Amino acid sequence: MTGVKAVVFPACAVLCALALLYRLRDLRHQRNDPAVRALLIAFLCKGISFTLSTPSVSRSVDARLGVADLGALGIHLLGGVASSAAFLAAIVYWVYPPEAARRHACVRLLVAALCAVAMLTLWAAAGTGAQQRSAHYLLQNAHRPLVAGYLLLYVGAFGAGMIEIIRLCRRYGRVAGRQWLRRGLHSTAIGASACLVYVLNRLLSLIAVQCGLDPLEWELLTPVANGTGIFFLVAGLTMPSWGPSVSELRRRVRNFVAYQRLHPLWSDLYAAAPDIALNPRHAGRLARFLPGDISYRLYRRVIEIQDGLLVLRPYMDPAVATGARESAEEAALSGDQLHAMVQARSLASALCAKHENRPPVGTSAALGPEAAKGGSYTEEVAWLLQVARAYTAVRTIVRTTERKVR
């Protein structure tokens, strides 16, 4: 068990330190934001608590200061009472108007302070300083009335804070306007629930000791619950800050992938009608993989593809479209897949006709840009991606067929 704690708790301390450093950036622009200050205090207290929870660290602290189980007191006061009150204060400022948040935060901090004073008093009265250090302070001393009272105060303060965090996060997570705030509140509720499992485990340990059972047999639950809890707490309480950047990165990656998938279709259209490119020097191979402003380049690519379809519209043979439709139906295609396949086969045939300088066959009202399924830009991109996918699959077949026909 000591080996597990020696790995899990330092990792949790590092996670808290990273969260603290990350949120320190916000002080430049939100110096007077009480929620930011509360989070910084919470991460600092929780980080110190996890550091002290590492067995070798707590032994060293007790030995250097000459006070047995002083490390345990620091773990409980900082990691249980202070951090839960600070986390709760931050959430209160997120979900309540400023004046109401101030009142709620003050009440909760006052209760936490009174609980901390009572715990310190009971710990001192228990006379732990005159005793040999306990490797598991709460579990090995739970049979003593003063320590039992100390334990009840600890789990009461910690548990009440986690329950209130869960209540607020679930209540306001449903109605939060910002997507990443809503996700952050839900993640925080999961983290608080995991911490509540640890609190219940400590409470059951008190009962188990009175019944003659050994709580150390299931002590593995302590590092597992604490590790899970702090992971989700850190993720949830920092998510409103880094979440929008993740959304922007996902959008850029999605646009880049769409840009690359449209390239074969655009490249053949550009070869047939170079005038569709607003900036010809962006047609090189390197520019494909270094597109710069990907949102703008994708927008230009969509426009240029539509311009290319318009140029090739006179070469699109209705007979080819009819044959393509029949073939697609025989292949059990339907809906957008069928329409995309018809568009792709007609386009591949039209490109062959233009490349060989065959005369136009007229226009087809069913083909060209008007056949797009969109209305919005997003729908337009999705439609062209379907056409590009179908075009990549049929262009070699169509070219081979055209050569055989001639």
Automatic annotation (TrEMBL):
InterPro entries for the chain: DUF6545, MAB_1171c-like
TM region(s), chain numbering: 6-24, 36-53, 73-95, 107-126, 146-168, 180-200, 220-242
The keyword Acyltransferase appears for this protein: no
UniProt keyword terms in alphabetical order: Membrane, Transmembrane, Transmembrane helix
Keyword Membrane: yes
Residue ranges constituting the DUF6545 domain according to the UniProt record: 253-392
Pfam families reported for this sequence: DUF6545
Name used for this protein in its record: DUF6545 domain-containing protein
The organism of origin for this protein: Streptomyces halobius
Upper lineage: Bacteria, Bacillati, Actinomycetota, Actinomycetes, Kitasatosporales
